[in-house]
Amino acid sequence: MKVILFCQNAYAFEIMKPIKQVLKERGHNYIWFITPKLSSLFPFTDEPVTQSIAELEALKSDAIIAPGNEVPHYLRGLKVQIFHGLAGEKKGHFHIRHYFDLYLTQGPYFTRGFNKLKNRFKNFEVIETGWSKLDLYAQNRQKILSEKKDLLKKHDAKHVLLYAPTFSPSLTSAEVLEPEIEQLAQQGNYVINIKFHDLMDAKFIEAYKKLALKYDTVYFKKGRDIITQFLLADLLISDTSSVIYEFLLLDKPVVTFGNINKNIQWHNLTEENMLQKAVAENLTNDPFSEKRANVIAEYHPYNDGKSSERMVQEIEKYIEKHGVPEKRNLSLFRKYKINKIFDRKS
């Protein structure tokens, strides 16, 4: 089986890393497709990779796996949507763009939603497999937990906190929570890791870097590795960030400030100067544990680290049963949009 790992954004690399490992183990050929903006961000060495759509056309692939929203209809192969997050309430998550033959869903909540749309449109299949990115947590857990033990011992601290806010100017808590994060640092009970999005305002980056220089228990984390930070942390502090659901699935408490979601299943603060109390309460009593269990059951009940394996197996089964689609039939508008995105003249 010849497979394209189709990447339009940097977040795709972590999502598809476990899949490419399964493809290797099962003897399939694969190639990464990346857009030009990703060339300096591609994290793998000695991996087949291209930026050429023409090369993909010549490849005549059997399957195209994409966590993004688009894939060229004219490429040969089963077009598989695997999603880039777990925030199902976000606008557009259940929007059908008709580019995909198969949707591999993360859990029952998503499966029900896409099955309703399947019954309406009748031109794609839906299979629940779990989400590949979460396999990485099972693979790295023991090593990172050992690092956590050493970190807490070094600082004579009890817990690791992670502060990971959104970068969105209208939603970020970075300014309002800065003094409260410092208050937590002053307590001495916590190691606090700060993880910002690449697009965070420079003034906030500078402010929190200064905080990390002031307190030896505060670390400003660079790079794209959020998985290590999630595994290290006992509790997440955030706002309206897409990382919340991913952290909840590790069965750990979350405290947010000013979250705008309609269905909040964690401790959300709406007033200032309440963070210290909320952190202590959630670490001690964990009042949202039952609600979090419901989120896990609905959003991603798989903790075996084998979602990527299920994904590849379902792709193999689909092709064995239905064959390989030569192309995806689309409306003229959708064809025009794809041609424009990928700069195709015909």
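That was protein one. Protein two is written in the same sequence-then-structure order:
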Amino acid sequence: MKAAQLMGPGLLEINDVPIPEIGPSELLIRVGAAGICHSDLHLLHFPYKMREEPLTIGHEIAGTVEAVGSGVDGRSVGERGVVYLCWSCGQCRECMSGNENMCLAAGRTAMPPCPGLGPEGGMAEYVKIPARSFVPIGDLDFLQAAPLADAALTSYHAIRGARDHLQPGTTAVVIGIGGLGHVAVQILRAISAVRIIAVDVGQDQLDLAKRCGADITLESGPDTARQILDLTSARGAEVVFDFVGVDATAQMSVESVAPNGAYRMVGLGGGNPGITAEAAGGPGWPWGASVRKSYGGTRNDLVDSIALARAGLVTVEVARFELADARDALDRLEHGKVTGRAVLVP
């Protein structure tokens, strides 16, 4: 089969590899589509070789069950689904309470094994997965379904974690209308009655935010936090979701969140929000506000995201690429030439 494999720092190749052999508790999935995430770019540019053997990347996977392990019940050949990306132990107290993304077996890093980030990923014609990670999608199109595995899952989890702040008439800010941000706008519109302010640097992204349901769009710049304060009677937004995570957006989040509000770090840009332990006032961190660094989501978050998509409430803006063009798709994403989510089709 063909697979997009990381060979070393900056080197991605399409290789011929054997179709995986599954164990008793696994499924073999014939991949229908695989989304591309900014974390795939982080892997591509990681300065050291991650392992000696090539790594098939890709953690947003949708496809069809091709084979079922001998010890698996409840799954059948031909079922269509997506792959839940947190391959947790399923037995610890976090997993048993539904917080699979915080599995105790992952230690303080709290990042359970994930396809394409250790185990072989889904930018290939086939992938083997733990049977418990398979989530059915019915007749949902694979191009729409694959990005739900991260772009919707991660967005939904961050939003659900701030849901107490999303009361009718409040304001939510979404910074970065990319693969995750444009989905987040739709989720907010579907499950809440908040006013949505979308922030980005490009007009194409701001137009996409409008189509997705944003009430107000702002071009990101030095005065954006002040604009948000002006739109909220100088108090700030009840929730700020940062899907970029660089210095400028992290500091914008701190300067625009309301007292008792919520700031959710989602983007992995390495930014420093500049939060200090000092008296509140001025542009700094306000009294009572909370900050949370959000990773992935739970299996239930994915189930709920799929339900929203099947109901027509979430539609991913997709840029389709063939598997053979994986490197070109990654390059286009890196240079800001992808609107929405890039998705590979084997």
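The first helix runs from residue 38 to 44. Keep this in mind for the problem set.
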